[in-house]
Write a structure and sequence with these properties.
The protein is mostly helical. It contains two helices and no strands. The chain is rod-shaped, with a radius of gyration of 29 Å. Keywords: Membrane, Transmembrane, Transmembrane helix.
Length: 71
């Protein structure tokens, strides 16, 4: 901090350090929400892709069996 500034009380100094505490809280909650949705979305996405991959694998096995039967 600048040494030329007069000594403020602790409350005023804290207020000057965080001029927009509500904005900081809003930003923190927005970041938390984004991370939460990102994790939740990632989990859903992974589950969906996993199921889709299993379905495709089963389908591939079925087609392979059908092709073997035709030969």
């Amino acid at each position: 901090m600048d040494t030329k500034q007069p000594n403020y009380t602790k409350a005023i100094a804290l207020d000057r350090a965080h001029p927009y505490p509500s904005a900081q809280k809003a930003l923190n909650s927005a970041i938390t929400t984004t991370i939460g949705l990102g994790l939740f979305g990632g989990l859903c996405y992974a589950t969906c892709c996993g199921c889709f991959a299993i379905i495709l694998a089963k389908r591939g096995e079925m087609e392979a069996k059908e092709n073997e039967g035709k030969r």
